Amino acid sequence: MFRIGIGNDTHRLVNGRPLVLGGVHIPTARGAEGHSDADALLHAIADAILGALCEGDLGVHFSDRDPQWKDANSLQLLSRVMWLAQERGLLIVNVDATVMLEQPKLRPYVLSMRENIAETLGVEIDCVSVKAKTGEGIGTVGQGLAVKAQAVVLMSAEVRGS
Q1: Which of 2, 8, 101, 156 has its CA 20 to 30 A from that of 52?
Q2: Topology (CATH) of 2-156
Q3: What residue ranges do the domains of the chain occupy?
Q4: What's the per-residue H, E or C state across 25-84?
Q5: What is the pLDDT of residues 36-73, one digit of tens each?
Q6: Which strand (E) or helix (H) includes residue 139?
């Protein structure tokens, strides 16, 4: 049995907030606004997993009205979502994600993002793809007003390697 999920997330960029993507702190003057650490990449992946499980989205499981999730580390949120998948007998086959951000350039951080995601999901790094794109000056991403991420996950109830 296979399951596919799609996730996406967008956060406004503001002064005075850190920018965290894939669990990596990116040095920049403007970071993502949000209730948790606002890691759009991990939120998109978690939403994709929840979609594959037919379990709604992050807001259902980690409400921004609940103070316990204030400034939460999104690697921990992703870990909890993965635990739910494992409880259902599902494993990650692969993740394909794209982060859209005008500045700063993300290429130097992509490997660390992939490592964090793979470790959290319990898969080899070659099962995790992270791509970085700009908005080419178009829309909220291109104008430097937002960071956006999209992710697709393939999950299987079969044991890896069989």
Answers
A1: 101
A2: 60s Ribosomal Protein L30; Chain: A; (3.30.1330)
A3: 2-156
A4: EECCCEEECCCCCCCHHHHHHHHHHHHHCCCCCHHHHCCCCCHHHCCCCHHHHHHHHHHH
A5: 899 999 999 999 999 999 998 887 777 677 666 666 78
A6: helix 139-142
